[in-house]
Each structure stands twice: as structure tokens, then as C-alpha cells.
Amino acid sequence: MTITAERPVSLWPAAHKVDARRPRSLQSKIGASDTVCARRAGYLLHGYAPTDGGEKRKAILGTWLHAGILSTAREEFGWIIERRVEDDTIRGHIDAVQLDSYTATKLPKRLRPSLPAEETTVEDVKTKSTYQWDNILRYGASDAEMRQVFLYADLLRSEGFADIEGQRQLARLGPVPVGRIRFRFINRDSGDDHIQEMAYTAERARGARWWVEQVRAASNPEELPRTFQGPGLSVVCDNCPFKTACWGSVAAGRRPQSILIHDDAEREQALAEYVEVSEQMKPLKERQKFLRAKLDGSESGVYGDNMLSWSGGNPTKVDDVDAMVALYQRAGLEVPMAPDAAAMKAQLKTAGIPVPVRLDPDRRTSVGINVTLRKKP
Ligand code: SF4
To answer: With a cut of 70, which residues of the chain have pLDDT below it?
Structure first.
């Protein structure tokens, strides 16, 4: 039986090529959106070539959603979207600017917003998955996201819109008095949105500028800290175009983070910290287990600030061998007769005969770490 299915051509390879041609993907100068990780910003600033292609489908989906959301804001509200801001050290593209009525009067009528803000607001749209949504609702924008948007706002306040083709009239406004920052989070699975707003503060902007200065002051990227914990522990690192430059290639079966230990002194220090952290976690884990047990059987619903729901507990799917045999027989195919290992094992055990085993060269047990207190001499 040959089963063939003609698949329509995938658009993803084309989407990756289009994404690679976007101005942001080609820039080698530091951009506000590159201020996620200090080491990564260093690689970009020093013109390193990316070492990893990475999977970009989620980022591309985010770009497509951005385009639709922002063009809606422009068409319906007259907000200024996707405009360049820059100075001698940094540049970026602001998602949207909602001008206040007073600033808007300085523009020709056709460029004024139909929905002005009480105070000029810089907006950044972030698309997130359901998996990240609870964190967004609880904690809001991350430090890196804050840094990025405060840099945009600060550039707009100090320099105004960049004086480049396509935004000359905006540039003539000069420095724009940004008063608010707004994040618009969109859940790309459900379409839910969540707004987080805050006042622009010079102190926060100074912090973001200071971060950029540290990156600029480094003479090479290796001097800069890795902001994240590395591949396998951070999705930012998993998708980082400089993953190999940053973590190197480690021996098969070893974790990338193992390059951080160079000698026994560092090993001793890491082990001591491991024990300390484990001790701190123990009572919390026990408490969490106890609370989970207390909640068992509680109805799903909203209780105070939290929503309780349950997942799992469903029958699992197993291969329906009888149905497969019937399918093969209908197709006139020979049903393979493999030995029934489970039945043979059961019979050997009943007869008190040890079940023969051999080592499988392709499979390994998972490696667990065991740390016990050293016996004092
Ligand atoms: S791999 Fe992670 S730590 Fe290294 S540069 Fe990329 S994001 Fe930063």
C-alpha cells in the first residue's frame, strides 16, 4: 500500500527569505530592538556575521500581525506608525505614536490624528503565545521590552523623528514631548489584548541609555555579559543568531553551559551554590505539593486574583492494532507477524527465568546529578 499526499508548496522558506531582506535583519549598528541581550548587542555592534539561522516562523507571524494592527491604527485613528528615530549612538523604528492634540496642530491637517492622546504616547505592539500570556497579565513587559521602548521615547523627546525621506514633515516637529509609554500585548492564539501603560520617566530612560553605553564601551562582545542562561534554558538563546559564537560547540551529550566551568575551583563553587539553592527550594517545593493536594477536586473558576482550571485526566490514545490489521487485510497486504515481547516477558517471569537483555547503543538513560555531604576525615 503506497500512501502519497501531494502537499501544497510551503510559504515558510519564502517568508524567511523576505524576512532576511528586511532592513532590521541587515543592520549592523545597534538598534533599540537589539537591546535584549548585552552580548548579542555587542556582536551586532562589532559587525559579527550571524552563526546560526534559527527558526523564525513565530517572529515572522509577529511581523505579519504587526503590519495589520498598525495599519488599522493609522487608517482609523491617524496614529503615526513605523517611523525612524535615531541619534549618533542608537536608532530604532517606533511602532506607533499617538500625538496629543496640541502637538498635532503643528502638522498639516491630513497628518493629524482623528483620535489624539491626552499626552503624546509611544506605543509598542508585542504579540505573544498563550503559553506566555499568564506571565504578561501578571508581570507585564520584561526589562528588555521596557528598555527598548524607553529608548524610542527618549530619542523622540531628544531628537524628534529622524530627518529622512518619507517623514520630513514629522522631523520638522523637532523634539516631541512624549508623556506616556504604552504596550499593547496581543495573544496570537486567541486575539485577546492587554494594555500596559506607564508615564515616561527620565530616570528609566537614563537606565536604558546607560545599558547602551556599557555595550558601546566594550572593546569586543566577549567582554559583555550574557543576559540569558543559554540554549536549552532560554528561548531567546535558542533562537539567537549568535548562539554558536556565544556558547561555542560543546561535546555531544554535554550542555552548552558546561563551558562556564574551567577548573575544580569553579566546580567547587558551582556545587556549593547548587546545594544552597536546593536547600532554599526544598521547603517551597514541599509547600507547593501540599497546596496542590489541598486544591485537588476544587471546581474550576475564578477565586480572588487567580483563575483555576484543570488539564489532563483524559483517556490516552494507543495504536489500534485490530483496526490496522483490518485495514491491511482489506488492502490485500500481508500483516507483519512480530514477536509479542510483552507476552514473552510475562511468561518468562512466571516461569522464574530471567528476561535476557542487551545494551542498546542508540539509547541512554537520562543523567541525574547526585550531591551528598563529603565525609570528614
Ligand atoms: S546566545 Fe543568548 S546569551 Fe548569547 S548572545 Fe545570544 S541571547 Fe545573548
So the answer is: 1-8, 21-29, 54
Residue 16: Cβ-neighbour burial (10 angstroms; 0-12, 13-18, 19+): middle
CA distance 156 to 100: 14
For ligand 1, atom 2: residue with the closest CA = 237
Residue ranges of alpha helices (H) inside the chain are: 12-21, 23-26, 38-45, 57-77, 101-104, 130-139, 143-158, 168-171, 202-217, 235-238, 243-247, 264-295, 321-330, 341-350
Q: How many angstroms separate the alpha carbon of residue 316 from the centre of ligand 1?
A: 38
Task: Name the packing angle between helices 143-158 and 202-217 (round to 10°).
Answer: 100
CA dihedral angle for residue 255, residue 25, residue 12, residue 83, rounded to 10 degrees: 130
- Is ligand 1 within 6 A of the CB of residue 227? yes
Domain ranges of the chain: 12-225, 258-288
Give me the residues paired with residue 303 across strands: 306
CA distance 208 to 41: 13
Q: What is the pLDDT of residue 29?
A: 60
The protein residue whose alpha carbon is closest to atom 7 in ligand 1 is 237
Q: Is 240 in the pocket of ligand 1 (CB under 6 A)?
A: yes
For residue 194, what is its C-alpha cell?
A: 492587554
Cell, residue 37: 541581550
Q: Is the CATH number of domain 12-225 3.90.320?
A: yes
**Residues 4-38: pLDDT tens digits?**
456 668 888 888 777 776 655 444 468 888 899 99
pLDDT score recorded for residue 366: 82
Ligand 1 atom 3, closest CA: 226
DSSP 8-class letter at 31: B
Nearest CA owner, ligand 1 atom 4 = 246
